[in-house]
Amino acid sequence: KAGVTQTPRYLIKTRGQQVTLSCSPISGHRSVSWYQQTPGQGLQFLFEYFSETQRNKGNFPGRFSGRQFSNSRSEMNVSTLELGDSALYLCASSLGTGISNQPQHFGDGTRLSIL
Amino acid sequence: TQLLEQSPQFLSIQEGENLTVYCNSSSVFSSLQWYRQEPGEGPVLLVTVVTGGEVKKLKRLTFQFGDARKDSSLHITAAQTGDTGLYLCAGADYGQNFVFGPGTRLSVLP
Description:
With 115 residues, chain A is mostly beta strands. Helix content of chain A is 0%, strand content 52%.
């Protein structure tokens, strides 16, 4: 069974640009959550999507947005990139919504570097 | 905003030793999860604890959820080099807000 797939694995952008990251969940999983991981702040929850609807949102500015497609694949977009957006962006999928009690399966992340 | 603290931040031990890492908060959580993350990879779920006072064992790993549902511990018996990694605890409150601790970085030396 294929795991969670995130593309691309590495990305280099400059300040002010925008970026789109992609996540393909495990087959049959309908919930996708996104996280930002940095050495200083650790793992921080961005948002969760279930059945193409955002179900939960963390404390990030509006420059961070996402969407989910009918096949449960999800994309995350960051506009007007800042140096502080350099991080590992992780996607996790689970069978149902309600991330607190659902086993989450993480991808290996997209490493985003802002120059 | 709930905060999860983990201690110690770093731990380096010899293979065969026992260790305990801690996850603490002033908030009550409906459930708590432990993950292990290795370099270049995403976190892998080890266990979910739901009931206050609950103890779960996974081979050499023992997880405990505090009676008040505010803290948890992970005990590893006879550590092996394969246990090396970043151990993260993550808690969910009753409003489905989910927060991760900063992690304990464990190095098990041969």
